[in-house]
């Protein structure tokens, strides 16, 4: 599955290279709207639009393959998102390059129109840079919030685990104390049993001596 995605990535790299080449051709080709140069521009525009369609379809296929992954899904998902952002930027570059079709009227209207178009392009560049910076800031803020939430969850989990460990230690201490009491109780019982057995043996020995003495006197008296 990952090898198929890598194949898609190679195809995407080839498509974006062709798109960039056609954008350069559109920007470098000058001429009036109805001139032969403009026809050449239109050819490049049609080619680049076709390449964009292929690239979008390729990214859709790549996104579907990433959803079926069981490993490294996040890594490839991040790549697909970066490709989508890159394709969006290339679309913006195409729109800027198409302005060259209108800027060809510089040949008829002179330097003032050219300066106006340059200012317009610089304004577009600044706006795009601002948009990209805003998106990066929003993405960084989102990542920060997610990281903070994950950190809070980890701290909460560690706190719960700590409480669980402390309760387990407390129960183990109670069990050890109970085992100590039971051990002392059993030791006392064993001592009393031994003492009782010794006492019984002593009593039995005394009775035996008494019986032997009584028999002795009885025998002597009869004789």
CATH superfamily of the domain at 2-109: t-snare proteins
What sequence of helices (H) and strands (E) makes up the elements? Answer: HHHHH
The CATH top-level class label of the domain at 2-109: Mainly Alpha
* Main pleated-sheet profile: none
Which regions contain 5 or more consecutive residues with pLDDT less than 50? 32-37, 101-114
Summarize the structure.
This protein has 223 residues and is mainly alpha-helical.
Note down, in words, how this protein is organized.
The structure is a single chain. This protein is mainly alpha-helical. The chain has helices spanning 2-28, 36-67, 73-103, 106-109, 111-222. Helix 1 runs antiparallel to helix 2 (36-67) and helix 2 runs antiparallel to helix 3 (73-103). The chain is rod-shaped. The model is unreliable at 32-37 and 101-114 (pLDDT under 50).
What is the strand and helix layout of this fold?
Elements lengths: L1 H27 L7 H32 L5 H31 L2 H4 L1 H112 L1
Helix pairs in contact: 1-2, 1-3, 2-3
GO cellular component, one term: SNARE complex
Membrane topology: Single-pass type IV membrane protein; Single-pass membrane protein
Keywords: Coiled coil, Golgi apparatus, Membrane, Protein transport, Transmembrane, Transmembrane helix, Transport
Task: Give the key terms.
223 residues; 5 helices; 92% helix; SNARE binding
């Amino acid at each position: 599955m990952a090898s198929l995605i890598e194949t898609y990535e190679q195809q995407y790299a080839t498509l974006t290279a062709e798109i960039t080449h056609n954008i350069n051709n559109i920007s470098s080709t000058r001429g009036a709207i109805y001139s032969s140069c403009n026809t050449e521009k239109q050819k490049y525009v049609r080619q680049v639009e076709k390449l964009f369609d292929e690239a979008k379809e390729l990214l859709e296929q790549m996104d579907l393959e990433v959803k079926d992954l069981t490993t490294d899904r996040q890594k490839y998902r991040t790549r697909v998102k970066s490709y989508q952002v890159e394709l969006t930027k290339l679309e913006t570059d195409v729109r800027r390059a198409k302005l060259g079709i209108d800027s060809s009227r510089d040949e008829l209207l002179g330097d003032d129109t050219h300066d106006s178009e340059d200012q317009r392009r610089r304004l577009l560049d600044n706006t795009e840079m601002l948009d990209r910076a805003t998106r990066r800031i929003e993405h960084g803020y989102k990542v920060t919030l997610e990281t903070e939430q994950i950190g809070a969850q980890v701290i909460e989990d560690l706190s719960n685990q700590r409480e669980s460990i402390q309760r387990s230690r407390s129960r183990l201490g109670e069990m050890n104390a109970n085992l100590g009491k039971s051990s002392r109780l059993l030791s006392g019982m064993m001592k009393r049993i031994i003492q009782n057995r010794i006492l019984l043996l002593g009593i039995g020995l005394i009775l035996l001596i008494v019986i032997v003495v009584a028999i002795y006197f009885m025998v002597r008296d009869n004789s």
